[in-house]
Design brief:
The chain contains 10 helices and 13 strands. The protein is an alpha/beta fold and 272 residues long. It has a domain of 138 residues: Rossmann fold (3-Layer(aba) Sandwich), CATH 3.40.50. The strands form 4 sheets. Strands 3-2-1-6-7-9-12 form a 7-stranded parallel beta sheet, sandwiched between helices. Strands 4-5 form a two-stranded antiparallel sheet. It is globular, with a radius of gyration of 19 Å. The protein starts with a strand and ends with a helix.
Length: 272
């Protein structure tokens, strides 16, 4: 197996993924849009590239001289950036033309599913209700219609080092929908699942990536605040629109075991 991989977007998930792959003897090329981060990549023995596919398109074709490309650049928060995200993905694919890339991993979001009061799996049709979810599903479709075989990972809400879930609602009051289930995944499992896909050559699939434990918002976030010694939020004890994200494909195609399968155990620990 060729063990050279390019990671487009070495941020909260991309950089730890790159480091994990380095520990498994992959040759890793990593991109950033921030010149100040080039040294950080170098220090981690990741070949650094300054690349942007926003208003300006700037890249070195050498970045794409890998068999596998991981695209982990979520749409930015503004409505304009979200609406232009599919075009950004198309620009990336244009740059990949005539390169060495044979497979792509694209990190999407479970925001592509609407809240229809049920458990959703990869068999459910996407029905995004937010601009970011709509941008993601359009980007997914562009990738799925491209000849390069792509695997899409739909991550639920991301937590872990630097993303303490206690801070999401700390001190807030009368938060609606307190009995709705949470859909979250820890960084350790984001990386573990990605590595599993690479090691098993599981391309051409869609994976819902979400911890298989669904406590209520009020239960989870009150305990998270207590653990982090932050002011507890209060929720309205009600159940409105909701979804619980599950998967058919991870057990059948990867046989992956979650590193953090139970939020109660994680909340009793002292690690983020």
């Amino acid at each position: 197996m060729n063990k050279t991989i390019s990671i487009l977007g070495c941020g909260w998930y991309g950089l730890p993924l790159a480091k994990a792959l380095k520990s498994k003897n992959y040759i890793v090329k990593g991109s950033t849009t921030n010149p100040g981060k080039m040294e950080t990549l170098k220090e981690a023995d990741i070949e650094p590239f300054l690349i942007t596919f926003d208003e300006r398109i700037t890249y070195d074709p050498k970045f794409f001289s890998s068999k596998i490309l991981v695209i982990c650049i979520p749409p930015k928060g503004s409505t304009g950036a979200q609406s232009s995200f599919p075009r950004k993905i198309q620009n990336i694919l244009n740059a990949v033309e005539n390169s060495h890339v044979e497979n792509i991993i694209f990190t999407s979001s479970t925001a592509v599913y609407g809240d229809h009061n049920k458990m959703v799996t990869e068999a459910d049709e996407p029905d995004p209700e937010t601009p970011s979810g709509q941008a993601m599903i359009q980007a997914e479709l562009i990738l799925q219609h491209h000849p390069i075989k792509t695997t899409i990972i739909r991550f639920s809400g991301l937590i872990g080092p630097g993303r303490d879930p206690a801070r999401f609602f700390a001190g807030k009051t009368n938060i609606p929908n307190g009995r709705a289930p949470v859909n979250l995944i820890h960084l350790e499992d984001c990386i573990g699942l990605t590595v599993s896909i690479l090691e098993q050559n599981a391309f051409g699939h869609i994976f819902n990536a979400s911890c298989p434990d669904y406590p209520s918002k009020q239960d989870f976030y009150v305990k998270a605040a207590a653990r982090s010694k932050l002011e507890a939020p209060t929720f309205i004890d009600e159940l409105n629109q909701w979804k619980a994200v599950s998967t058919n494909h991870i057990p059948s195609l990867l046989n992956y075991k979650y590193k953090i399968p139970d939020w109660s155990d994680w909340l009793r620990s002292d690690k983020l």
